[in-house]
Structure formats: structure tokens, C-alpha cells
Amino acid sequence: xxxxxxxxxxGGAGFIGSHFCDNLLKKGFSIICLDNLLxx
Length: 40
Hints:
This protein has one domain. The chain contains one helix and two strands, in the order βαβ. It has one helix spanning 15-26; strands at residues 6-10, 30-34. The protein has a two-stranded parallel ribbon. α1 links the parallel β1 and β2 (30-34).
């Protein structure tokens, strides 16, 4: 069986979160980014 890994990232719109999401996408992960855009 082949399982795809899905990852939830909170704070994905910030500097660190967005770069972390980019790196995971390049490695083939399926990600969901959540951010309330309240600060920053």
C-alpha cells in the first residue's frame, strides 16, 4: 500500500511557515496551511 502523507501547518502565511510549506511541497508532501492573518 502507498500512503500519502498529509501535513497540517498552522501559521503558514508567515515568513517561517511559508518557507516551511514551500520545502514540504518540493519534497512531495500534501499540505494544508492555516493562518488567521491577525498579526504580522
